[in-house]
């Protein structure tokens, strides 16, 4: 038996994946720089401030689907950098080094960079989603 009943919805589900991932990513930046929805529990430095700015700007752009492929590619790189700088030195397994979110964001953004934003995006409206 083939498990293909969701296949007709794949483009819309890609848009939903992009929107929810971007909104969640935005909240990380908002916490760092705006103290919302809760204060950031660590002191800010130049790296975390730059990451927070990319999380806010990139999160908004990706949520609305504008410049989706290059933004997703940049954010994927940011998360790979974060993983290898902050998490990998604490051990190999992401479940033990606290790096699951960074790893998942990295590969979700890499997929969006390759697959595009989906039909529910500014890029699609402008005809730039191909």
From TrEMBL:
> One GO term of the cellular component aspect?
plasma membrane
Species of origin reads Mesorhizobium hungaricum
According to its record, how does it sit in the membrane? Multi-pass membrane protein
Its localization reads: Cell membrane
Question: What superkingdom does the record give?
Answer: Bacteria
Q: Which residues cross the membrane?
A: 46-64, 71-89, 101-122
Q: Keywords assigned by UniProt?
A: Cell membrane, Membrane, Transmembrane, Transmembrane helix
Q: What taxonomic classification does the UniProt entry list for its organism?
A: Bacteria, Pseudomonadati, Pseudomonadota, Alphaproteobacteria, Hyphomicrobiales
Q: Give one Pfam family.
A: DoxX
Q: What is this protein called?
A: DoxX family protein
State the family it belongs to. Belongs to the DoxX family.
What is the protein's major site of localization?
A: membrane
The record's InterPro entries line, in alphabetical order, gives: DoxX, DoxX-like_oxidoreductase
């Amino acid at each position: 038996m083939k498990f293909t009943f969701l296949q007709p919805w794949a483009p819309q589900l890609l848009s939903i994946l992009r929107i929810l991932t971007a909104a969640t990513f935005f909240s990380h930046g908002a916490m760092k720089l705006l103290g919302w929805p809760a204060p950031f529990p660590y002191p800010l430095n130049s790296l975390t401030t730059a990451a927070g700015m990319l999380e806010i700007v990139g999160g908004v752009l990706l949520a609305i689907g504008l410049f989706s492929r290059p933004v997703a590619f940049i954010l994927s790189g940011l998360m790979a950098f974060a993983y290898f700088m902050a998490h990998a030195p604490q051990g190999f397994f992401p479940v033990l080094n606290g790096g699951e979110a960074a790893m998942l964001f990295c590969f979700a953004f890499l997929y969006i960079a390759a697959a595009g934003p989906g039909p529910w995006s500014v890029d699609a409206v402008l005809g730039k989603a191909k």
